[in-house]
Amino acid sequence: MNGAHDxxxxxxxGPLPLEENEPVFHADWERRALVLTLAAGALGxxxxxxxxxxxxxxxxxxxxxxxxxxxxLLALESLLERHNLLSAEEMRTGEVAGPRPAPxxxxxxxxxxxxxxxxxxxxxxxxxxxxxxxxxxxxxMTRVMNPRGHTRLPRYARGKRGRIxxxxxHHLFPDKxxxxxxxxxxxxYGVSFEGAELWGAGAxxxxxxxxxxxxxxxxxx
Length: 221
Prior knowledge:
By secondary structure, the chain is an alpha+beta fold.
């Protein structure tokens, strides 16, 4: 989707303030927002991509008017309600309606967090008989697309001419994983673009940008 989150290459957002010796968290509630997001995600009801899509689906005024961890918290509330884990009223009052449910079998306990984060969530998938459509060095054109759902192809790189510079492997396709399809996978490529192709004649001389792009984002030239 073309959401407020997709601001790559856009201007007029003002200076980016840099805080010297910035702490990881500015307030205790930010620490709790991260903990809650990790613990809820470990339950397995949604994918990383669905969590990302929940954040980018926030209304623009809310997104731009919120701090980093408030965006995380608002997205988590949406996910908990969508997957029938908590209702909006339960989150508002802090009281669980009806009998308290039994402990979830996939609890993320404090002593397990470091190991779970170190393992990550591998997204590579067996390719089977599927072969890459594009070769190293091949010129490609990214599709012009304005999808209703999630995508990892940024707006500034749509309809642009690039060159395949890396084959990343066969991976879970985020555009579908964000909407519940955990089986769809595609080949992933590193695609390099000249700065002038992306930004026009005013681009910094010699600039090149490389993005990772799934196969269905690309067309051959």
